[in-house]
Amino acid sequence: MGVTLLRSIFGLCAVSSSSRVTDSYCSTKSYLRRRRTSASKQRLTEIKSVTSTPPPPSRGIRRRRKNKDENVVHNPYSKMEMARPDLRKSLLDFLEEARDFVGDGGGPPRWFSPLECRAQAPNSPLLLFLPGIDGTGLGLIRHHKKLGEIFDIWCLHIPVSDRTPFKDLVKLIERTVKSENYRFPNRPIYLVGESIGACLALDVAARNPNVDLALILVNPATHVNNFMSKPLLGMLNVLPDGIPTLWEDVFGFKQGAPLTGILEALSNEFSVQRMGGVGGGMLRDLFAVSANLPTLSRMFSKDTLLWKLEMLKSAIASVNSHIYSVKAETLILPSGRDQWLLNEEDIVRYSRTLPNCIVRKLDDNGQFPLLEDSLDLATIIKLTCFYRRGKSHDYVSDYIKPTPFELQQLLDEHRLLMDAISPVMLSTLEDGLLLKERNIHMRGLTHPMVFMYIQDSLVDPKMFDKYKLMGGVPVSNMNFYKLLREKAHVLLYPGGVREALHRKGEEYKLFWPEQSEFVRVASKFGAKIVPFGVVGEDDIFNIVLDSNDQRNIPILKYLMEKATKDAGNLREGDESELGNQDCYIPGLVPKIPGRFYYYFGKPIDLAGKEKELKDKEKAQEVYLQAKSEVEQCIAYLKMKRECDPYRQLLPRMMYQASHGWSCEIPTFDL
């Protein structure tokens, strides 16, 4: 699919509202962030011979000059290379705060709201956290800060000494859900449950099908592994009742004791030094657990564990009997390394039984994923488009922009590709169209298949994460209208799937619709159309098996037809070549990477032309002008790249070896 991403922007237009000067975020294509300039620093004068509307004289490639009087919104991405992991608490924080909860004197189950969650945005939905076997309600402690910015968070605390039956816990949660739904009938309520908490969430949803609920089930307890649980029960039955006191008296694990102090100091040292990697994290957590054994021994006392295991059995039985009554949309996050409470067959059954169910497997997580470094629940909610403030998810208004660290992670994932293709970015504008420097966040109109979750699909939905994180929106006339109404900057792909999944010999060929579909909508908002072209795909891959070839191979023909049916044809009924939107994975043979070239043409300003462009013929003229500009941009780049001495990988590597690996590599004279 990498070639699809790169090829799909040939014949692309960027459309932006003219009333929007700056935005607070960078472009979807911001990972192409390094500007490439000519060795001679000449102006772009040759463009006059290949573009129908030449750029103004003496305007070339240079960085934007800041105007002191200009009101520029702060750009949180301007220094994203230095972004640190988003501030989150650690396992040690969980254990230290759990110490107060374990010694709270008992009482009935009750709700609390963490102090870190005070800064939620207006109209944030309610999130009720239902704890796992620990019962403290602190299971989201690593996620409080980020989730607290987009949710109103309440956590359920079940004291260690409490023996409330499972069905009564369900009733307690149900009362809260009904009360909050009555107060805010248009606000969804999220139930985030871990292990036993997931069973509570499912039972509440089954009893309240008419309440707008969204379930996030982390490592849901679907069964009890008897191979592991029976020996545990046997061991618990023979343990003395005073096991917490034994830990303290025999081994010296008392709060304030010398041994405990040493272990706490080691754990803090590992946290302060931010020792990364699996080894550093494991040692840090090991010292944290060892220093807080008294807290753990009271949290999981013999009587409490026996009670929780019995409650777990009744919870699983109750859920299995009510699962078919659940109507809420559900996100299931099963751990890949949990063999005690999780059964993959049950997860598959849940995914096929529950309506609107998304399963996202946490391959590298274990028994308690919410307390592990590698899991960021807020990011997962973004990547699955599972956040909403109203009755249904709105891809335009419910979008949450990535944090600087999330964007930096995305850049790191593409670092090898960036270094391999060494992009050259050219613009005819005085301040360039370098979107990171311009402080603009682009929203790309994307094929709806990117947002689909299809059972038994050959394509892993995680491969589309980058598009969702960066604000992709399912392509439709309504979404295009809503984006421009919100003064967003929009990436438009007129050629769609047909152009992205082109066939042999169709490199750089545009497959635009015959009618001016987007021009008149853009004119309503006084938008600017920025045509641009990209070349370089043919220097990375050769297509050896296109859709025509795959139709002659029965198994590939079947897979292609199934994928096309699942994805849907947005151009169904179109008798032109654009209507042949086959969805398939092309057979590719990689090449030694060449270089990519981007050229942004002169904007077409539609401000004040709404009445004029109501005339279909006038709108068609502007449409054809935009298409011609894209073709001219591509033609110019194809011609000029032949003069680039660093088009091939080896010369670029030699240049970097002599000038430094972080240097900018020259290109052809302009």
TrEMBL record:
The keyword Transferase applies. Residues 37-70 are annotated as: Disordered. InterPro entries: DAGAT (IPR007130), Hydrolase_4 (IPR022742). One of its GO terms (cellular component) is membrane. Residues 167-246 form the Serine aminopeptidase S33 domain. Keywords: Acyltransferase, Signal, Transferase. GO terms for biological process: triglyceride biosynthetic process. Residues 1-24 form the signal peptide. GO terms for molecular function: diacylglycerol O-acyltransferase activity. The keyword rRNA-binding does not apply. Belongs to the diacylglycerol acyltransferase family. This is Diacylglycerol acyltransferase. It comes from Arabidopsis thaliana x Arabidopsis arenosa.
